[in-house]
Amino acid sequence: MIKFKKAAEEDFTEAFDFIRSLWDYNTYEESATKKVYDSVIQNPDSFAFFLLDDDEYAGFCHGDYFQTFWMCGLTCYVSSLITKQNRRNHGYGKMMLDHAAMLAREKGCKAMILDSGMPRKEAHQFYERYGFEKSCYGFEKML
User: Which of 13, 100, 123, 133 is the most exposed place for a label (fewest CB within 10 A)?
Assistant: First the structure.
């Protein structure tokens, strides 16, 4: 049975495993990641949830709500959408995006945005099939 579980403090180990699996080219210090996780689950302008299939953690999604002049209102930014490798191509990503969109609508958001690493071509195709459009280039500068 599929269900969504709001992320809680006791779920950190599961979230940490998801995070490390998606960005495996990065290294994560567990205590620093835990501080971010704790901040996210306590912040009313953030959301984090798991998708469970028969009580097994199959996916994790996290994002934030913020004001933009571009939308002249609230926008939902999905920063993490992660499905376990052995659970991909089973519709879990769509279910999590649907759930994130429902949360965004309830919050009053006008749009939902995300970004995806350049090499993740399969993910890009999935996002476009879902209805996302390429709208900009993303840039980052490490400080």
Answer: 133
